[in-house]
Amino acid sequence: MRWMGAAEALRDRLVSRRPDPDLDALLLCALALLWPPGGQPYAPHTLVDESVKAARRLHTRHGGFVNAVLRRYLREQLALHLAVQADSRAMTNHQAWWVRQLRNDWGPRAEDLLQQAQQHPPMVLRVNTRRLTVVQYAQVLTDQGVRHALSQDPALDQCVVLAQPVPVTRLPGFADGWVSVQDLNAQRAAAWLLGGADTQGWRVLDACAAPGGKTAHLLERSDLQLLALDSDAQRLRRVADNLQRLGLSADLKAADAADLQSWWDGQLFDAILLDAPCSASGIVRRHPDIRWLRRAADISTLAAAQLQLLQALWSVLKPGGRLLYATCSVFKAEGQGVIDAFLQRIGGAASLLQPGSPGHLLPLPQNDSAPPVADVGPDGDGFFYALLAKPPAAAAA
User: Fold this and answer.
1) Comparing C-alpha atoms, which of 293, 318, 339 is closest to residue 389?
2) From 3.90.180.10, 1.10.10.10, 3.40.50.1580, 3.40.50.150, which CATH number describes the 188-396 domain?
């Protein structure tokens, strides 16, 4: 999926007519695995041989077709590589509308975002400090020969970045709840929402909780009365599983957060985390299929739903409370655009946006809008965060 644009461009030059869907999918897989030049994960002759075997399982005659196409590619690959440089699919490996949106939002930085999307992201852990300290877990990793780095950023005080990804089954103490896998920019949410206040006993809502990484992080940091909502009951079971592994507990409810009558008991919340459903354009390094599944019309639809959620949840926040709005998107329409529309609707409330509220965090090694992340090195996923504070009752009146 990471190289599907290049694979499609090559396919169009190698065959006169697009094959049937199953055979086309197999051919695209093979071409993607032969790309980019010099970076193939398999020896070319091995890949051709296995692709031909797979094609014959679809139909006997398909083996010869795949063999001919892939061997032609290997014979003409230099000329083909030069030819596809004029094809934006091959150069960007994103849909054309996605590229236009990035360039409109970020200008010259869009090219960096497109290139970065082709890189594999780092594997980042969050230590459950209710079980052991970060220093203790780092020593366990050192003893087992797992190279890693710690963050000096106060907002990332549970963060460990691995030099190389490993299966979670090989992570020391994973099954015992010592550690979770969570991107470093995702780990910023809990610290920003809770801040430096005495939050013990706070009534907190995690409005779109699944799969539960941020839910668990909030509970690791403070003893909260936490309600975790998600509209998908099946995904909500993942939240329950994660909390059980970590030795944490929360009230879980399957409901649409925007439909207050279906879940709200009338008690206001001290703090709300709204990690709203979005395009997930900030995590395409981890999930490269996203860039092919989304459509241009999705962005305005998602932004409207995000604004609806924000308005509904604002009404169940206590005066003096705080709400953290988040999306894992790099599109401005799903970030600053939603916040600007919300602030206009509630009338001259720009002061609600708290100082230091970071805005867009881009998945780049150098991101001027992100807080500094000393000694970590690898960059985080793309996010948008806005911390809003509701005026106290007297001021609101």
Assistant:
1) 318
2) 3.40.50.150
User: Distance between CA 9 and CA 85 in Å, rounded?
Assistant: 9
Distance CA 248, CA 354 (A): 30
Interatomic CA distance for residues 128 and 146, integer angstroms: 18
CATH number of 4-93: 1.10.940.10
- Which residues, other chains included, contact 208 with Cβ-Cβ below 8 Å and sequence gap of 6+? 229, 230, 231, 257, 274, 275, 276, 277, 309
Choose the CATH number for 124-181 among 3.30.10.20, 3.30.70.1170, 3.30.200.20, 1.10.3720.10.
3.30.70.1170
Looking at residue 350, its pLDDT comes to 53
| Alpha carbons 141 and 130: distance in angstroms, whole number | 18
How far apart CA 160 and CA 122 sit, in angstroms, is 10
190, 206 in Cβ contact below 8 A?
A: no
Please determine, for residue 389, whether its predicted confidence score (pLDDT) is greater than 50. yes
Overall pTM > 0.90: yes
278 is catalytic: no
**Are the C-beta atoms of residues 116 and 285 closer than 8 Å to each other?**
yes
Kindly provide the b/e burial profile for residues 87-105, where b requires at least 16 CB atoms within 10 angstroms of the residue's own CB: bebbbbbbbeebbebbeeb
> pLDDT tens digits for 4-45?
999 999 999 999 999 999 999 999 999 999 987 777 889 999
Q: What type of residue is 105? A: D
Q: Which position among 159, 208, 278, 328 bears the catalytic label?
A: 328
